[in-house]
Structures are given as C-alpha cells and as structure tokens.
Amino acid sequence: MTSSYRQITHSTTVFGMVSLIDIVLRIIRVKFVAVILGPAGIGLLALYQSFVHMATSIAGMGMDTSAVRQLSHARGRNDQAMIAHATSAVNIAAVLLGLAGAIVIFVWRDLIAIRLLDDASRAGAVGWLAVAVFASVSGASFSTRLRGHRLIRELAAVRVATAVAATLAAVVLVYMLGQKGILPLVLAVPVAAALFGAMLARKIPVSTQALNRGAISGQMEKIFKQGFLIMLAAALMSLAVLGVLAGVNRVYGLEGAGIFQAAWAVSFVYMGFILEAMGTDYFPRLTEATESGEDVVRLINEQIHAALLTGAPLLVGMIAFAPLLVQVLYSSEFSAAARVIQWMAFGNLVKLAGWPVGFIFVAKGRNGIFLLTQIEWVVVFLLGAWIGTKHFGIEGLGMAFSAVYLFHIGLVCFFARKVVAFRFTRSNLQIFSLLLACCVLLFCLSRISVAASYITGALAIAVFSVFAYKTLKALLGHSPLARLGLGSGSG
C-alpha cells in the first residue's frame, strides 16, 4: 500500500508544483487579456479554444487514451517489439488524423463560422484554426508516448514550457494586435506544445529491430478500435460544452460567454493537477493491475483517498474566496463568475470521488459502459444548463455542473460494482462527508457575509492542509514533500 501511495503522491506533487507555475503564468496572461479586451475578448478566446478542443477530440479518435493503454500493456509485458510497433503506429496515425481533421475544418470553415460564432465574416479565422487542430492531434503522439512510459517529469517539463510560451504569446500578441491577436494566440499554444513534446519524446529509447508493416497495421487497428468509442465520448462532452458556450453567446453575448469561461477555467485550472496526475500516472498503473479485482478496487480507493486529501484545501478555497479569485485573475467585470465557481466546487468534490472509478472501464476495455456514462453526462449537463439558465441565469450553469456529477457518480459506481465489485472505503466516505459539510457551511456563509466566509475559509484550509499532510506522512512513512526537498525525509 505504501508503494502505491508513494507513486500517487509523487505524481500529484510533481503536477502540483507544475500547476503552481502554470497558475501564476495563467494569472498573468488571463489578467492581461481580461483587462485589455474585457469579457468579450475572453468570450471569443473561449469559443476558439473550445472549438479546437472539440475538433481535436473528434480528429484524434481517442488515440491519446487507447494508445496509452497499448503502450502500458506492452511495458507491463516488457515486450520491446510491441512497444516499437505501437510507437510507430501512434506516430503515423497522429499525422494522418491531424491532416484529415485540418482539411475538414478548412473546407467547412464558412458553415462553422455561422453555426459557432454566428458571424460569417470570421470564416477566415476558422480556417486558420485547422492549423491548431493539426498541431494538437499530431502533437498528441508525443505526449501519448510520454504518458505510456509514465515519464512524469518530462510531461511536467512540456507543460511548463508550453505555459511560458503561451504567456509570452498572449502578452505580445494581445498588446500589439488587440482582439486580432486572439487567433494567433490560439494557434501558438498547440504548436508550442507539439514542439516541446517532440523534443522530449525523442529521448525515449525504442527497439532498433526491423519493423513489420503488418504488426504496425495491427497496432493501429487496435488503437482505432479501442479509441473510437473513447473519441465519441470525448467529442460528445466537448460538443456539449461548446454548445452551452455558443448558447450563452447567443443569449448573453460574448460578455456572458466570457463570464462562463472564467468560471469554467478557474474550476478546472485549480483542480487540474490532481486530474492530470490521474491521467498520467494512475491510468497506466490501473491498466497494468486489471488482472486482480481486489488489487483494482484497492488502487481505486487509494487514488480517491489521495485525491480528496490533496483537493480538500482547494475546494474549500474556491468556495470561500471565489469573489477574490475572480477579481485577482480577471477584473470586476467578471464578478458574476464568482457564484458560478462556488456552485461548480460541489461538482468538483463529487468529481474527485468519481473520476478514479470511471477509469476502470477504459482500463478493462469496457468502452461501451464508458460511452454510456459519458452520454449520461452530456444529456444531464445540457438539460441542466437549459433549465438552470432559464430560471437562474448564468449562475444556473454552475448548478448544472454540480447536478451532472451527482448523477454521474451514481451511474459510474453502479457499473463499477458490476465490473470489479467496487465499494468506497469507510475512510473515503468519512472524508467526503466532512468536506461536503464544510463546503455547504462556507457556501451559506458567503451569502451572509463575505468577511465571515474569508475567515472561516482560511481556517478550514489550514485544518484540511494539516490533516492531509499528516495523513499522507503516516501512509508514506515520510513527508509527502520529501522528494522535492521541502520536507523531512524521516518518518
């Protein structure tokens, strides 16, 4: 158990430090864009980025997940030939899929501009987004190889380098070009990520034996077969978010879209390092452990335990300090995003407990169940967003986000019990209940007195931080920060 917690804590700590750097840089670039261009600029940036993300999900055919699964299986068997063939398959598929996606976008740029932006004059800009999609899909081959080999530090380096490049691009382009700088900014980020990923992925040793075309084709077939349903699920989720964003744009304008994007970004950035650590380290380990049901259930509960411990201070802080976060990260024009963030924090709490469970379906190749759970997510989110905005305005989007994960965790756990006899441990249920009660208290306080919410929130953050540190130290036998030289290595 200690070894597993060490691996979980190591990956989470590394990505925690990376996220800290990313957050600082994100504050700089987002604040810069928000101050110069306002909510309308953030809204346009969100529409472009959401479209690129959705198109990448479709064009990528789920390769970033299915290929990691193939590489993890090969590594678990120490099959160097299989690793070499899978690597070649990933590289070839990424370029072909990226080209296909870019061509489709360029050909349909007029229709996309009208449907997405309600502005035919932006067709030229949409055509340029094809470059971003090609870079994202083809560049995913490099990050996939790094994830498949569980090279956490290299992945972290790519993320930091990309964040630095994105910040420099945002400051220079927006300052010089104003709103016209948003398009080249959207293009620059995936291109930079692909270049940095290529530099580090080249260092991964690959067998020099002769490659067999039939074996490469076989690997590509497996990757596409496993990835299709994953792609479909990811595309549906991305399309749902893009659809909500486009709907908000039509009803509330780019300013409303910018406010929704601000809340969405804050929620995902601050929880991102935990979720990214799951995808980078936990998923490959779960794939390698699928032979034993007991081992799988133990690993899932350990990941949930670590996620709740490390995420607790962040969730508490998001609810207590949401108004201050919005003011610091954006500007007073985005104040409406604070309440959306507070509602979304409840969804993120449930998400931390449910996400590790959902990985089991892909790890075990039960992609049909995985797709069903994602369809449920899309349906509930769209329905919740429609009802929420109709009765509560933009704040209703935060309510919809929380509702979707409440339904989602119930369905995921139902199927997980059928597949691997999964049950939450008592300690996980206790931590979840305590954290939920604290979040409800802070949420209510924030409606009564902002000052009381800040004071109580600061105390709660301190308590949960100390509790998490001591719990992880007891499980690990040393400070969870020891590997970074920030804590005592003794027990």
Features of this protein?
mainly alpha, 86% helix, 491 residues
Order of helices and strands: HHHHHHHHHHHHHHH
Strand content is under 5%
Low-confidence stretches: 484-491
Helix content: over 70%
- Give the end-to-end Cα distance, rounded to a whole number of Å: 16 Å
Radius of gyration: 22 Å
- Can you count the beta strands? 0
Number of domains: 1
The description of the largest β-sheet is: none
Mean residue pLDDT = 81
Question: What is the count of helical runs?
Answer: 15
Structural category is mainly alpha
- Give the overall silhouette: globular
Write a concise synopsis of the structure shown.
The protein is mostly helical. 86% of the residues lie in helices and 0% in strands.
Task: Give structural notes.
With about 500 residues, this protein is mainly alpha-helical. It has one domain (about 1-485). About 85% of the residues lie in helices and about 0% in strands. The chain contains 15 helices and no strands. Helix 4 (about 110-115) crosses helix 5 (about 125-150), helix 8 (about 215-290) packs across helix 11 and helix 11 runs parallel beside helix 13. The longest helix has about 80 residues, at about 215-290. The protein starts with a helix and ends in a 15-residue tail after the last helix.
Give the helices and strands, then pairings.
Blueprint lengths: L1 H58 L3 H15 L2 H28 L1 H9 L5 H26 L3 H26 L4 H20 L11 H76 L4 H28 L1 H8 L7 H27 L3 H26 L2 H26 L5 H23 L1 H27 L15
Helix pairs in contact: 1-3, 1-5, 1-6, 1-8, 1-9, 2-3, 2-5, 2-8, 3-5, 3-8, 4-5, 5-7, 6-7, 8-9, 8-11, 8-12, 9-11, 9-14, 9-15, 10-11, 11-12, 11-13, 11-14, 12-13, 14-15
